[in-house]
Amino acid sequence: MTGDDVRAAIIRAHREQWARVVAALARRFGDLDVAEEAAAEAFATAVERWPADGVPPNPGGWLTTTATRRAIDRLRRESRRDDKHREARLVYDDDPPVAPGVIDDERLRLIFTCCHPALAPEARVALTLRMVGGLTVPEIARAFLVQEAAMGRRITRAKSKIRTAGIPYRVPSAADLPARVSGVLAVLFLVFNEGYLATGPGADPVRHDLTAEAIRLTRLVRALLPDDGEVAGLLALMLLTEARRAARVSASGELVTLDQQDRGAWDAALIAEGHRLVRERLATGVPPGRYQILAAINAVHTSARDVRDTDWSQIVALYDQLVRVDRSPVVALNRAVAVAELDGPEVALAAVDRLAGALSGYHAFHATRADLLRRLGRSDLSRAAYDRAVELAGNAAEIAHLTRRRDQLG
User: Fold this and answer.
1) Distances from the Cα of 143 to the Cαs of 122, 227, 232, 400, in angstroms?
2) CATH architecture of 104-167+181-226
3) What CATH number was assigned to the domain covering residues 334-410?
4) How confident is the model at residue 105 (pLDDT cuts 50, 70, 90)?
5) 247, exposed or middle or buried, with CB in 10 Å at 0-12, 13-18, 19+?
6) Can you tell me where the transmembrane regions are (predicted)?
7) Contacts of 352 by beta carbon, 8 Å cutoff, 6+ apart
8) Least trusted range by pLDDT, from 22-31, 149-158, 270-279
């Protein structure tokens, strides 16, 4: 096995095993700091040893065992120094570590711990992206549009609060689930979005490991709450989005926009499942929530065999419904994109420009403006907007797409 093969195996193991290792250690030791630090040390050890020793047959088991030993070493040191009897009792060498994947909902327990209502909403999301998604602090900071140091402090405070408050590492009881699920869904959606449009230098444009994990965990939540409309809506939204993954990036590594995608490459099975979930929710007659409306919008897009068959009036009507539920400027921006197809780019541009104060640091705002200005023949203004979008974008495929569109301007 070459050095490149080993490096690829380590990268793959990090993507596939990080959450499993952290979850196994968090369950056993009850401390997210211990779990994260030991997991990080295990991966660092892999970087040192695997090139010489070879990639083990079971990378996840090797990483979990190594991380468990590191955690035990740390707790022994702290026990001697600080007389932490409770932590010392957790250390027994003859107890084998739990192999990754043995407990099917281990990562779900970790998510519910990270999403405990005692934590501030933004802390829940950041902590879950770090502990479950395996994202780095700089990646999470970019997603939140905050400074890296501030994000690091936010995650540290969240872990400390979980430890000092004794927040349990478990899925809540059936009575507590409905009150807890909205925060979990918000986090799962953000984990999915990071995979759908991955950020960070050197990152793959689409991280299937994250989208697949978000879908897997959402299915588990749906099994816990089969009658919850928003859980079904989020699952449908993820499936209908994931169905287009194979068509989203060109062979040259450039993002392919929805109107240019090869619809024959879409996953018909995922689309069928997503449409079925949307229809089931519509049949209940219960007013839909945010995720259900977003899923319905995606159902309209994926129902069109050709982009020219898209029912834009229905999409705008759904966005009008969504605006009443979610008044975020991002929703208004996406609605303007649909309005451009009905009422033209001039009307849409006016709506987009009204969002400048709220979205000036958001790359999609400038990319949308650039496209509308291009369609209106305002090349200089369009070029400047593309420049700003490229500057703010963190996804390599998206940067390639925006750069090409900018360079095509006369």
Assistant:
1) 11, 31, 25, 19
2) Orthogonal Bundle (1.10)
3) 1.25.40.10
4) low
5) middle
6) none
7) 333, 336, 365, 368, 369, 372
8) 22-31
